[in-house]
Every structure is written in C-alpha cells, then in structure tokens.
Design goal:
311 residues; alpha/beta; Rossmann fold; Histone, subunit A; 2 domains; 49% helix
Length: 311
C-alpha cells in the first residue's frame, strides 16, 4: 500500500474582501511557511490599488509567490500557473511540511489542486483579431459568438470577463473544437495532501466591507493609478473590476460618483460569482475569517489524520 502524503497544501479560498490576506498571513506565521497567491488580478506589477494587493509590510512579513511577477503586457493562463506553481511547491516542500495557497480565482486554484488540461497551441493573430473585435463591437458581440460556438463554456464562464470569453473563442477558432472539450474531465493525483478552507461572511457584512474597500481605494489614489494605465486600456489585464469602470469617465460618459457606485456593484457581483464557483467544491470546510485559532485546530487535526475530508 502506498504511504499517504507527508506534505500539505493548505488552500484558503473565499470571495473578494472577505479577509483572505489577513488570515493567510496569520496562518503562514503560525506554521512558519510561505504563501502562493491564486489571485490572478494580483499577478500584475502595474495594478496595485484596484486589485487590493497585500501591502508592503504584509509582503515583507511572509514570503509570497505569484504577486507582482507579471507585466500587464504579458500573456499568462491557468495551465502555465499549474506548471510553475507545482515547480515552486516541489522546492518549498523540501524545507516545509505545509505551504499555503490563497486566493479568489477559482480556476487558478483548481489548476494547481486538480490539474488543467493541456491546451492546444493557438494562433496569436486570432487573439489579436478577437481583441480588436472586442474594442469595435463590445463584449455582447463576443458573448453571442461564444454562445454559438461553445454553449457549454458559455454557461460556465464569467460572461462579464472579456479575457475568459476571448480565451474560449481563441481556442475554438484555432482548433475548430470548443474550448469546453479541452477542459479537465478528471482530477490529477497530487503528491501532497490538500486541505480546503473556505472563508465566508453574512452577505450584508461582506457587502459593507466591499463598499468600504472601494472607498479606501479611491482615497489611496485609484484614480491616479488608472490615469497612468490609460494608454494600455486595450490590454486584457485591465478588463477587470476596478479598472474598466473608468472607461466611461475618461470618455465623459459618466461622473466619478457613478464610477465608484459601479465598481462597488461589480465587485459585489464578482464576489457572488466566486462563491458560486467555490460552493461546487464539497471538500471545502467553511469558517468565519476571524476564527483563526479554530481553523488552526481543524488543520492540525486533519494533518494528523489520513482522512482529509471536512468534518
């Protein structure tokens, strides 16, 4: 009989603004370990305030991976993340028994924990054409194309995320096969235990935190950050909550009050979509973010047991 894994990946999941950063750092300090980020919005060096990255003090207190390691000009996907994260984990596990994965991007967390299909090579010219089509005709046109060519992925994808829609169409037009045909049908075995911790708050409490976060972002200089990125607003990385809402403002189609309201509204919608994704994973054990000691006790019990299902 094969012996059970001796290393553990502790996965901290939850919607935006729920409190993942603070808890992940608390746990990393307790276990003397490092954090891998699975928040794809925080990958980019140029996007700081609008993505609510850990601040400099937080980043200095615990070693973080996959934060500030890409430029908005770089192309990156979940399959690449899977490969690179597994390589880093292999190195970290030589010195540590437990490593933390923290984030709100369900697709990236799943890529590392469950595996991702090998995606076919695509034609860069097709992606460029799709980006141009998005700029000319808008996201609704892309949604209609995706619904026509890949109705399965259309029902699964975040339809307000042009990057994900373009990726699906890029694969289809490069291979003449739906993107959904390439997505993982099974789960890859991993040489480590995986413990899933989900963080949740009452909806009213979470929405209050989201509204306060947006207010704080504006006070921290989000408008100035976005102004500096204006020449690059055509890039996929900037088609995200906290940035794309400024398009109308800089085209004199909306005032700042409307922009702020829209960011908060879209962030709440994003949080709802995140929770929909996470609730599909029945292995997640849910806690309030303030229950740090309770989480530590639970994790310790699971590590000591061969049964890693939630109790």
């Amino acid at each position: 009989m094969q012996s059970p894994p001796t290393k553990t990946l502790l996965v901290i999941l939850g919607p935006t603004a729920v409190g993942k950063t603070a808890l992940s750092i608390q746990l990393a300090r307790h276990y003397g370990t490092s954090i891998l980020s699975a928040d794809s919005r925080q990958f980019f060096k140029e996007m700081n305030i609008g993505t609510a990255k850990p601040n400099k003090t937080e980043l200095a207190s615990v070693a973080h991976y996959f934060v500030d390691f890409l430029s908005i000009h770089d192309s990156y996907d979940a399959a690449t993340f899977e490969t690179e994260a597994l390589t880093i984990l292999e190195k970290l596990f030589k010195e540590k028994d437990l490593v933390i994965l923290s984030g709100g991007s369900g697709m990236y967390a799943d890529a590392l924990c469950k595996g991702f299909d090998e995606m076919p090579e695509t034609n860069p010219a097709i992606r460029e054409n799709l980006n141009n089509l998005y700029k000319e005709k808008g996201i609704r046109h892309l949604q209609e194309l995706l619904e026509k060519h890949d109705p399965v992925y259309y029902r699964q994808v975040d339809l307000n995320n042009p990057q994900r829609i373009i990726r699906g169409l890029e694969v289809f037009f490069s291979t003449n096969k739906p993107f959904s045909d390439f997505r993982k049908k099974g789960i890859k075995a991993r040489p480590f235990k995986i413990i899933y911790i989900g963080l949740s708050r009452d909806k009213e409490e979470l929405y209050q935190r989201i509204n306060l976060r947006v207010e704080n972002m504006m006070n921290q200089g989000l408008l100035e950050e976005v102004k500096g990125l204006l020449p690059y607003f055509h890039l996929n990385a900037l088609q995200t909550v906290g940035y794309r809402e400024f398009f109308d403002y800089f085209q004199a189609k909306a005032n700042m009050e409307t922009v702020v309201e829209k960011i908060a509204q879209n962030t709440r919608r994003y949080a709802k979509r995140q929770m929909t994704w996470f609730r599909k994973n029945k292995e997640i054990k849910w806690f309030h973010p303030d229950a740090g000691q309770e989480i530590i006790q639970y994790v310790n019990r699971v590590i000591e047991s061969e049964d890693i299902q939630p109790i």
